[in-house]
Amino acid sequence: MSKTKDRIHNSQLQYKQGLGQNFLYDEDLLASLVTLAGVTAEDDVLEIGPGAGTMTKHLCKAAHHVLSIELDERLIPLLTAFMESYDNFTLKQGDVMRLNLPELTAGLRKPFSVVANIPYYITTPLITLLLTAGLPLKQLSLMVQKEVAEKVLSGPGEDGWGMLALRCQYLCEPRLALDVPAACFTPPPKVDSAFLVMPLRDKPPVTVKNEDDFFRVAQAGFALRRKTMTNGLCAAFHLSREDALGLMSAAGLDDRVRGEKLTMEELARLSDAYTAYREEHA
Ligand code: SAM
Fold first, then answer.
1. Tell me: the pLDDT tens digits for 135-163?
2. CA–centroid distance, residue 49 to ligand 1 (Å)
3. Residue with the nearest Cα to atom 14 of ligand 1?
């Protein structure tokens, strides 16, 4: 048993399943995760859910500064003691979904990286939050459920192709860096995991007139998965069938195609057609 695991066991701390507490104690695995995350002495890092601080310690050794957010109040004294000798570490107690992240991270070197073995009960909302909060990000390196990693990497027409994949691929270049079996965690979760590494792109792979429209149009297509994109447009934007057909035609798309089959380029064309329509009818 590792010393940290001993310490956690001695503190009689019960892992809280509801907080996604599946900890990593394997020092070799932790070191390779930090290497895969490409953290350098120039980088500041935001960590979500430090838990017992096992990954935090490796991050502090590699990075310029580490800011960790932990919700579980029981872990704060343990973490404070464990990280005492690191002067490049800041701990914030709170719920990552409720904190003001731009304000909290304002003091970090820009752009900063996020590296975390995240709590799985908030995977999709957390990735979405990190990508939409206006943070100056360099890279997200996240332990997620294997199924979520596959979803993020999926393409048009595949089951996983949806808002999460589109947003991640529009803003980042995601790759599955490492498969991590459930047995590596204490306690083991019900599913296998994967370490997803997502460097932010300098610019998106498609250019759109209005990004909000792009994501709203995509959402319209993904929301009604078994229906046509034309029907999705009618439902989401209260368009007449004639106007929706006009947009499909302006984007050069077959009016019977399903939204979930559209590529990022096709969604971008449709989004531009919708932006032009919206501005004309404002
Ligand atoms: N980093 C540690 C490790 O790898 O062993 C722990 C990872 S564990 C999967 C997730 C951690 O996130 C737990 O420490 C849990 O208490 C914390 N957590 C859960 N929900 C949170 C939230 N909403 N905001 C911040 N931390 C949270």
1. 999 999 999 999 999 999 999 989 999 99
2. 3
3. 51
Rounded distance from Cα 120 to ligand 1 centre (Å): 9
d(CA 44, CA 68): 11
Taking CB atoms and a 6 Å cutoff, what residues make up the pocket around ligand 1?
19-24, 48-52, 54-55, 69-72, 95-97, 117, 119, 122
Q: Which atom of ligand 1 is nearest to the CA of 24?
A: 5
Question: Nearest C-alpha to atom 12 of ligand 1 is from which residue?
Answer: 49
3-state secondary structure of 65: strand
Amino acid at 88: N
Asked if 266 and 253 count as a contact pair (C-beta separation under 8 A), the reply is yes
Question: Does residue 70 contact residue 49 with C-beta atoms inside 8 Å?
Answer: yes
Atom 1 in ligand 1: residue holding the nearest Cα: 50
Separation of alpha carbons 5 and 264, rounded Å:
45
Summarize pLDDT for 60-76 with one digit per residue, the tens: 999 999 999 999 999 99
Alpha helices, DSSP H only, in the chain?
A: 3-10, 27-36, 54-62, 75-82, 101-104, 123-132, 146-152, 163-171, 211-223, 229-237, 241-250, 264-280
> What CA–CA distance (Å, rounded) separates 117 from 143?
5
| Residues 186 and 25 sit within 8 Å (Cβ to Cβ) | yes
Which atom from ligand 1 is nearest to the alpha carbon of 49? 12
Q: Flag residues of the chain having pLDDT under 70.
A: 1-2, 10
Residue from 71, 92, 144 whose mutation best tests the ligand 1 pocket (most atoms within 8 A of CB): 71
3-state secondary structure of 154: coil
> Which DSSP string corresponds to 105-150?
TTTS-SSEEEEEE--GGGHHHHHHHHHHS---EEEEEEEEEHHHHH
